[in-house]
Amino acid sequence: MSNQNHTAEPWEAISPCPGECCWHLQQVGNDNPMDLISNPEMSRADALRIVACVNACAGIDTKYLESPDNLATYARRMAIQRGELLAALEDIEPHVIGEDNINFISLVISKAEASL
Fold this sequence. Notes:
- The protein is mainly α.
- It contains four helices and three strands, in the order βββαααα.
């Protein structure tokens, strides 16, 4: 699903200089890290925000991030699919045979509703 043309997440911000005067962004856990972004004028706040955004978008194809319309459409589709799944679970609940299955389906529905 994810576009693998970019450095895989997660990323981290590090400051190799005393006093946190400069920031570097790199891939977490890379034994031979390479600076992804190195700008001596980058503030700590900017470095941490870039890392937070990159890590939050892990698993989302880049094409959905390049256009606000596409990203909004992606989010709407996810919400619609979630609603459809919840409705399907509610529809099958009366048809489930056996007390254990009914309890399980009821638990799934209540957890799905709680996440709204």
